Amino acid sequence: MIAVRGLFEAHLTVSDLERSIAFYSGALGLELAHRDADRKAAFYWMGGRGETMLGLWEVGASPQRMNLHIALKVELPDLLNAPRRLRAANITPFDFWGRSSDEVTVLAWMPAASVYFQDPDGNLLEYLTMLSEPARPELGVVGWGRWNDGARV
Length: 153
Hints:
Blueprint: E1 9-14, H1 17-27, E2 31-36, E3 41-46, E4 52-58, E5 69-73, H2 76-88, E6 105-107, E7 112-118, E8 124-130, E9 141-143, H3 144-151
Parallel strand pairs: 1-4, 5-8
Antiparallel strand pairs: 2-3, 3-4, 6-7, 6-9, 7-8
């Protein structure tokens, strides 16, 4: 078999491409790689040109929607600052359970820290950082404060 080294691209459906371009370019600051007006699609570079690509495809307004999820790899200092920066951009950060929260969530089995939020179409986006500490699956999912206040002992 061929060894997979990572995920190169992912795609999300959106109901209004212009609104989504404003969100992904403006609020998230992603670099627009290409826009295809005929196919109503936009593509973004993440991590630099040629690293990872996100495609957005307009599917129009419909009563039936599919909400998808992607996690965006970020550095720990940026993750810890993400709730404040998201709120400054009028985006609500939330925890693993979908509650509005300014605290980072830790998935102790990985372990990884994350902050969740939604795009204008309700797609679930996540900023995620893998942590260097050993995994502690017995902790389940905990807040950053609990993770750092001896929950690992």
